[in-house]
Amino acid sequence: MSVLKAKRHLAKSEFEHTFSLFYIESERLINKVPKRRKKYVTENIAVINNSIYNDLMVIQKYLFAKKDNKKEIKKLRILSVLEKIDFLEKAIMVYSNIMSMSFEQQCNWVSYLDKEVALLNGMLDEETPKSKFKATVLDWEKISRFEVLRNMVFLHRYTHGKAVRAVGKFETCTTPLLIGIIDDALFYLSKANSYIPQTKAEYEEREKYIDTVLQKLDEIQRPMLMYFSTMGYSNRVQREWSEMLRKEIKLVKGLQNSDRKRFSKLP
Predict the structure, then answer these.
(1) Could you tell me if residue 130 is inside a domain?
(2) pLDDT band, very low/low/confident/very high, at 167 (cuts 50, 70, 90)
(3) Mean of the pLDDT values across residues 211-230?
(4) Do 61 and 97 lie in a common domain?
């Protein structure tokens, strides 16, 4: 193989190398998580990463395919990876909050995914819609200034803390349900606050995120009551947890009302 051809082959395999760097960094970070927290903080990252790597190996296999059916396999696997990277965003955010990861560390971690998406988008044909992925990270300076974000961060950590202790006593469907709901609430509120709407379309997208947050905060009340009755929490814990939730619902509704006044008439 000529040097030129070898370099061209290496360049086309850059997508696999880039993700391997993300994978290695993820493993390093996963190993920092206390064992009792791993199930609900790192499991999703590990599962999605392994699935993506499997897809990338198939893409590599059919990288220079000339037959239409093999080209289609490659295309479908690329789209599969792009979809899974979207799922990784929430898992990374959950890790970042529970582990109090610095803004700079978060940016470094997700930079591999931003590059990976750009490389895979470049491998798709012109007719295929491209991924618009851009990872949202937790900006602690911004969070400290906005009570709705700050309270959500505390509520998310508090809920995870209670769930971890509960798992030590019993394993039920309530714990993953509780964790799944609060993870969604943190994620969609962070997405809603990752930009200031400049168009009606952007406002409507943000409104959908906020509606989802309110839906999740309503959904979480029943599994919380289940925890109250099965875990025998003190009145202080029940009151503290419930107040945190009530406060967040009030703050998110306030944000939604403010948005309607500011952005509903955007062109």
Answers:
(1) no
(2) low
(3) 92
(4) yes
In terms of domains, do 112 and 218 share one?
Answer: no
Query: Which residues span the domain enclosing 51?
Result: 3-123
8-37 pLDDT, tens digit per residue, is: 444 458 999 999 999 999 999 999 999 888
pLDDT at 170: 57
Which pair of structure tokens corresponds to residue 195?
Answer: 């930009």
Average pLDDT of the chain is 90
Q: Please report, rounded to a whole number, the percentage of residues in the chain having pLDDT higher than 70.
A: 93
Task: Read off the pTM.
Answer: 0.90
CATH number of residue 189's parent domain = 1.20.1440.60
Does a structural domain hold residue 132? no
